């Protein structure tokens, strides 16, 4: 009887360890630097997600502003950019270096953000600390404008 209880306890521990390992390996998106992220990692923080394309002149024009934002943003703000085009990691690295992008580029989305892929570029989405969508912005943005939005009232769509 004690031997059966011991086997049962070992089986339960193995299942729990396997489940814990499985949960640790899950992610919602990865960045070009190889980091894996879960949306829940950013609860309590604003997340700014910018969609861009190399063929989009206004997108490239706002890159210095996004780099500036990444440098001056408070700790409760995370900034990511997503290429509108389905590019290889090598091409993303090339673009990041060519345009001196000083912010994280998302290279793979496993589980989507709480918004649809934009139809127009540039497009910037602001996610509230509770994970809800605060608002969407189309057109070029400045670092100051984005900072004011994450500290201001809720946007209307």
TrEMBL record:
Coiled coil: none
Keyword hit for Membrane: yes
TM region positions: 6-24
Keywords associated with the record: Membrane, Redox-active center, Transmembrane, Transmembrane helix
Signal peptide: none
UniProt keyword Transmembrane helix present: yes
Gene3D superfamilies per the UniProt record, alphabetical: Glutaredoxin (3.40.30.10)
Domain called Thioredoxin: residue spans: 18-155
UniProt-listed InterPro entries: AhpC/TSA, Thioredoxin-like_sf, Thioredoxin_CS, Thioredoxin_domain, Thioredoxin_ResA/DsbE_sf
Domain of life: Bacteria
Record protein name field: TlpA family protein disulfide reductase
Species for this entry: Glaciecola siphonariae
């Amino acid at each position: 009887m004690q031997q059966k209880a011991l086997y049962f306890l070992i089986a339960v521990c193995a299942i729990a360890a396997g489940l814990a390992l499985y949960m640790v390996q899950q992610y919602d998106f990865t960045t070009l630097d190889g980091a894996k992220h879960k949306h829940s990692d950013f609860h309590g923080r604003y997340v700014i997600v910018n969609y861009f394309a190399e063929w989009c002149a206004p997108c490239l024009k706002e890159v210095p502003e996004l780099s500036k934002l990444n440098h001056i943003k408070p700790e409760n703000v995370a900034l990511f950019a997503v290429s509108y085009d389905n590019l290889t990691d090598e091409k993303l690295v090339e673009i990041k270096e060519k345009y001196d992008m000083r912010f994280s580029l998302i290279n793979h989305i496993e589980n989507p953000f709480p918004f649809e892929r934009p139809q127009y570029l540039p497009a910037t989405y602001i996610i509230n600390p509770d994970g809800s969508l605060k608002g969407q912005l189309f057109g070029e943005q400045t670092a100051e404008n984005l900072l004011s939005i994450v500290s201001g009232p809720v946007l209307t769509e």
